[in-house]
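Explain the record.
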Amino acid sequence: QGFLSEVYKERPVKPVVTRFPPEPNGYLHLGHAKAIAIDFGFARFHGGKTILRYDDTNPDEEEEVYFEWILKIIKWLGFTPADITYSSDNFQKLFDLAKELIKKEKAYVCHCNEAEIKLQRGGKDGKEGPRYRCKHAEQDVETNLQKFQDMHDGKYEPMAAFLRMKQDITSGNPQMWDLAAYRIPKKQKPHHRAPEWKIFPTYDFTHCLCDSFEGITHSLCTTEFILSRESYEWLNKTLEVYEPMQREFGRLNVSGTIMSKRALKKLVEGGIVRGWDDPRLYTLIAIRRRGIPPGALLSFVNELGVTTAKTLIQITRFEQSVRRYLENTVPRLMLVLDPVAVTIEDLEETQELDVPYSPKDPKFGNHKVRLTKTVYIDRSDFREEDIKGYFRLAPGKTVGLLNAPHPIKATSFEKDESGKVTSIKAVFDKESKPKTYIQWVPDGSIKLEVRVHSPLFKSEDPTSVEGGFLNDINPNSEVVYTDALIEEGFNEVRQKAPWPVTAGETSEDSGPETVRFQAMRVAYFAMDSDSTDDKIVLNRIVSLKEDSGKN
C-alpha cells in the first residue's frame, strides 16, 4: 500500500539498490532524516542495499567534518551503507562521457555570463521574452572538444567558460533549457580526493550518471527534483547508459525554525546559539545533542508516512511524538531545578526507601533513595500564603512527597533580606490524605546545571518577519538553572546508559546524550556534551504532557 509500494510496482526488480547522495557542504537536518529512512528503509524492506554516495563536486564548499558527521548520523539512526562512494571516484569517466556528449552534438562550451543566460531563458521565470540559444551553440564539434580540453587544462579563468548540455530550449520545463554540465569554480580550492582537477561536473550532469554507474534501481528524491526527472532521463538516454528510475516524495519541513545553511551560519557566527549542535536547532547533530533518541526520530518519520505532498509539521507535533517514545523507554528520577531546604523536624533518623525507576514497568528495576531530615523541594512548590485551589506546600498545608511514606505539613519558614525564602520547617502529617504529590531530593544530592530550551524563534515562519529572521529571536529560548539537585539514582542511570539501547546507540559508542530520564513532574532530560567529571550539565529534551498548570 502507499507511495513506496507503487514505486516498487513500477520497477519490481531484485535486488533493489538505492542511494543516499548528500553534498558534504553542511550538517544534515531533520528533513534529511526522512530521506535517510526512505532510502535505507525501502532497500531493506525489499532485501536490497543502499549506497552512501558523497556528492563531492563542489570543493569550494566542502569540509572534512561534514563527511565525518554524515556517516556518523546515518549509523546513529541505525543504518549501515553497503558501500561508501564518492562522485569524484568517477571524475575521469564523467569527463569522458562529457566528450561523448560533445561528439553527439549534444553539448557545447559557452562563454555567456549570468545576465545573458537569463535573457536566453526568457528572463524572469522564463516569461519576459522568447527563449533562444546563444551563438556558442553553433560551434562545431572540434571547437567544443578543444575548448573543453582547455577548460580541463586550466586555460580559462573561473566562470569564463562552462560546458552546457544541448537539450530542448523550446520545452516548457526549465530543466531542459541547456543546463550546465561542467564549470570552473570561483575559489579554485583543491579537491580533497582529486586535487589535479580544475573543472567540476554539476549536479544535473553527475547525479544521473553516478546512479547509472552504481546500478541504482530506484533513485528516490524530494519533489523539488520532479522537473529534473526529464533532464535525468534525457542524459542517460542520450549517452545510451543504463537507466535508473527516479521518483519523488514530499520533503519534510518544520514550522517555527530554519534549516538553511546560510541562515544557520549567521546564528552560529553571531553567537546567538552555542554552535551547529545547539539543542535549539534542527540539525541532526543538534537533535542528537539535545537527547532525542534515534528511535524517536524514525518513529516520527514513520508516523508521517510517505506521499508526494510536501509536509509542514509544527514543532509541537514533533515533540509530542518524541514524548510518546520516551514515556516507556527511559527511567524516572527526582530532580529539583530551584531548590529550597525543608527540615522535617520529627524525622528522627534517615530512612532508606526502595523506589522503582518506572511505576509502570518492573524491568527497569528499583533503586534506593534516602529520606533525610533535610530534603529539598522546588521553590515553585511553596507559597508563603495559602490560597483556595492551591494544593502544594504552604504554612499549615499538607502535601505528599513522591515515594515517601507520609505527607508533610509546613509549620514555618525563613526569608533573607531580599525577601527570598531560604528554609522551611515541616512535620509529618500521618493522618491526612494529600491532594497532590511533589518531587524532592535528599540532603547530599548531586548538584548540576540544567538548561531548559524553548523555541529559538517567536513566530511560526521566522523568514517572513520584517527585517529578517534575526528580528524574530526569542530572548528567553534558554533558561539555565545553575544550582539544580538530582537524587543519587542518577549515577546508576548514567552507568547503565544508553536509554534505550538501539542499533545506533550501544554502550560501546554512546555519548552523554544517551543518559536520558524523566524528571518526575518536570520534563525529560539528557546529559549534555559540556558535562565534565566535576560538573554535570543536562538539556531538556521535551516537556512532560502539556497540562493546564500546577495547583
Notes: The chain has a mean pLDDT of 95. The domain at 91-202 is CATH 3.90.800.10 (Glutamyl-tRNA Synthetase; domain 3). DSSP finds 13 helices and 27 strands in the chain. The radius of gyration is 30 Å.
